[in-house]
Amino acid sequence: MLKLDKALYGLKQAPRAWNTKLDTCLTELGFTRCTSEHDVYGRGTASSRLLVGVYMDDLIITGSDAQEIDRFKVEMKNMFAMSDLGLLSYYLGIEVRQNASGISICQTAYAQKLLKRSGMEGCNPCHIPMEPRFKLSKISTAPPVDATESRSIVGSLRYLVHTRPDICYVVGYVSRFMEAPTTEHLAAVKHILRYVAGTLHFGCQFRRNSGVQVIAGYSDSDMAGDVDTRKSTTGLVFFLGSSPVAWQSQKQKTVALSSCEAEYVAATTAVCQGVWLARLLSEIKDSATGCVTLKIDNKSAISLAKNPVQAPWTSLSSAAPLKDWHG
Fold first, then answer.
1. How far is Cα 85 from Cα 87, in angstroms, rounded to an integer?
2. Helix, strand or coil, per DSSP, at residue 274
3. Where are the alpha helices (DSSP H) in the chain?
4. DSSP result, 11-76
5. pTM higher than 0.85 for the full model?
6. Do the bridges between strand 293-296 and strand 215-221 make them parallel or antiparallel, or are there none, so unpaired?
7. What residues have CB less than 8 Å from 16, skipping those under 6 apart?
8. Residue 159, beta-bridge partner list
9. What's residue 317's pLDDT?
10. Domain spanning 213-316: which superfamily?
11. Taking a C-beta distance cutoff of 8 angstroms, is the pair 225, 249 a contact?
12. d(CA 2, CA 4)
């Protein structure tokens, strides 16, 4: 039996050893790890805050003080053999453009590689990612297709959702049929690829704003939209000022018996996301964050959220005391 004195690349414990080493070094340099997001470290006060985002051995550094950023780079170079790549322009397949008006992100090159790998390069683009009221089922009489290839394409589309909230719902929808995909399911995936081919340069833009920015969210839900399980789908998006910062679309875990219940479950998911965003923003800014606003388009769900003891529909009719009821 051998005992390793140093972690090596390729071993199962190597990532853990590297994370421990980096966490120790950043802590010694005065950084504090965010409790809401363990991959983000902060140092300094709100006026001169320095933030470091970590993904394996790639670091993103940002802050309001350029001298503080340069000092941190010197400190890291004294500890590690670090390469300074300058202003962030490309990170994990995401293209970043920075100018005086703000920052924009997209995945044009990644989307082009995806189209080429899936054999959809040069295809005819379409204007919408999915036809309205289009439904799929796991029970299909269509011929089966290569499951490995289909899963690979859908998995690649899921990574594209990081900068494309417009395809969040449709990609999540086709992800439900990866167990036994057929030509019918693959046709829906190719329809999404055709939409991506016509919107290669779409992405998110974060405009510069010196004013007070608040977090505002929107939640919505359908009613028993899944053909096989009759479960509803939750959709939500959160904005910081006028810029989208978080979005999600997923099938609910329970079967809702009314539109009020479906909307209430979606609002609950959105509230959890909003609380996490508020806590993360407070740690990043090192200052308190205002209340998060959540907007719902269902009056019954809003009434139920305000008063969960009394259901919103009980006010529509008079209720007799329980002792007066006899079976």
1. 7
2. helix
3. 14-28, 66-79, 108-117, 147-160, 168-174, 183-198, 259-285, 299-306
4. STTHHHHHHHHHHHHHHHTT-EE-SS-TTEEEES-STT-EEEEEETTEEEEEES-HHHHHHHHHHH
5. yes
6. parallel
7. none
8. none
9. 47
10. Ribonuclease H-like superfamily/Ribonuclease H (3.30.420.10)
11. no
12. 7
Q: Minimal CA–CA distance to 59: which of 67, 50, 47?
A: 50
Question: How is residue 227 written in tokens?
Answer: 């053909």
Query: What residues have CB less than 8 Å from 17, skipping those under 6 apart?
Result: 7
**Which residue ranges does the chain devote to CATH 3.30.420.10?**
213-316
**Residue 236 near residue 217 (C-beta atoms within 8 A):** yes
DSSP letter (8 states) at residue 182: B
Sign, CA torsion 232/238/244/248 = negative
| pLDDT tens-digit readout, 124-177 | 999 999 999 999 999 989 999 999 999 999 999 999 999 999 999 999 999 999
Tokens of 302: 């809003």
Nearest to 233 by CA among 194, 176, 166: 176
